[in-house]
Write a structure and sequence with these properties.
Structural class: alpha+beta
Number of helices: 8
Oligomer: single chain
Helix content: 40-55%
Number of strands: 8
CATH architecture of one domain: 2-Layer Sandwich
CATH topology of one domain: Alpha-Beta Plaits
Shape: elongated
Strand content: 5-15%
Length: 201
Amino acid sequence: MLGEGIIKGMAETARNFLGSYVSDERLTTVQYPEERLPQLENARQFPFLVYDGDDWQKGLRCVSCQICEKECPPKCIYIVKSKDKKPDYKGQPQFYPAVFDIDLSVCMSCGICAEVCPFESIKMDTNYEWSRTDRFGSLLVHKEQLAKPNTHYHEIHPTDAAASDAVLAAEIAKAQAKAKAAAEAKAKAAAAQSTAVPAAA
């Protein structure tokens, strides 16, 4: 029927309008900023960098692979790779971002950077209060502003954070098993060599 969608929309609007006088559930507005609606778990606003532990510089998960920078549609991420390396969560030496900037005035909150990150280091925050008087200065955020602890990630996205931690734990266990197997193989080779030398003599 022609105009059925318009009629349904107007009926829903009327239902909310009239219902708001008798039911709190039908209230569609709050007295912001004194009142704030709770954020849904799947809500996303702007990216942030996850770090483990108490020190964001030591615990930053980002290894400066620059995949997010390349995949970002509006090109709002700017990364400069470090010259030296530091141990990552598996204990392997990795590069880290000497510079990691995001221009929030350009970011469109698509979440592609979080999807393509292979190190579970960049995620989407739920903070939407970024109004500033200086658009180009204040909305260019640096890595120290972007860095947030893993506990913050668990608070805003508990389901995704648990899955992310499980992936990292599996990788750590795999790396430890590989290192243990390599150490055992090395010990066996050394034992075999030590027994072979006297026999040759």
